[in-house]
Give the backbone structure.
Amino acid sequence: MPVVDVGGIRIGANEPLALIAGPCVLEDEHEMLSLAISLAETCAHSGIPMVFKASFDKANRTSLTSYRGPGLEEGLRILAAIRRAANIPLTTDVHLPDQAARVAEIVDLLQVPAFLCRQTDLLVACGATGRPVNLKKGQFVAPSDMRHAIDKVAAHGDGGVLVTERGTTFGYHDLVADMRSIGTLRALGVPVVFDATHAVQRPGGAGDRSGGQREHVPALARAAVAAGADAVFLEVHPEPARALSDAATQLPLAEFPALVRQLTAIGAVVRG
C-alpha cells in the first residue's frame, strides 16, 4: 500500500496511527488559534501525528440560513495563521474545481466532501494540484466503488489519495458505520481514514439541521483503529453546544486527550 505524505506526516501501512482533527467550520479566529494549539499539544504529548482540519465554507448545510463559514480568502488567511501558530499541517474542504489550485497554495491535504466524491471535474482539479487528496466516501457509495474516484484523482496527479469512511445511509435521518468497509477500502491500495464524528450524524434529523449522537464517537473511533484504519478524523470544538455547525456531533475539547490516549494505545497494538 502506498504511504501518503501530508506535510511531513506519513499515513499508511506500517506507519503510526495519525489524526485529522479540528472544528467543523472556521469560527472566531482567536478561538480557532487557541483550539489548534491545544490539539497539537495534546497530540505531541501522546506522540501521535496530527493534521488540523477546518472548513472555510460548508456548502452542503441543510438550511439556506445556516452559517457556512468565512469564505475562501478569509478562511485561507485564518488557516495560514493557524499553521504559523501551531506549526502543523492543514486540510480543508474544496467544493468547486476553480478553488483547488488556490487552496493548494495554503493547505497540505485537499479534502473532497462526501456528497461530491463522484464529481469528476472536482476530483481532476484536486489531483492536478499535486497535493494529496482525501476523498470522503459518499454515504450512498459502496466501499469497493470508491476505486473509480481514486482513479480520477490518481490519473491527474501523483500527490497520493486517502479515502475516508464516514458511514452509509441507513433509512431516513440515520447512518451506520460498517467496520468491514475499512478492509475493503484498504484493499483498493490506499490508506484509510475513519471519520468518527460524521459517522454518528443524523442527516437532517433536527429539522433545519443535522442531528447526531456524539456519545458513540469514542466507541466507533476505537473500533476503527482496531479494524485497521490508518488515521482517525475527529471534529473537535471547545463547546459543541455553541458550535456554528455540527453542534450535535463534535467532540468536546475536554474529552479529546483521553480519547487520543486510548486510540494511541490501540494503534500501538494493532500497528505494531
About this structure: The helical segments are 29-46, 72-86, 100-104, 120-128, 146-154, 180-186, 217-226, 256-270. The chain has one domain: 4-270. Residues 4-270 form a domain with the TIM Barrel fold (CATH 3.20.20.70).
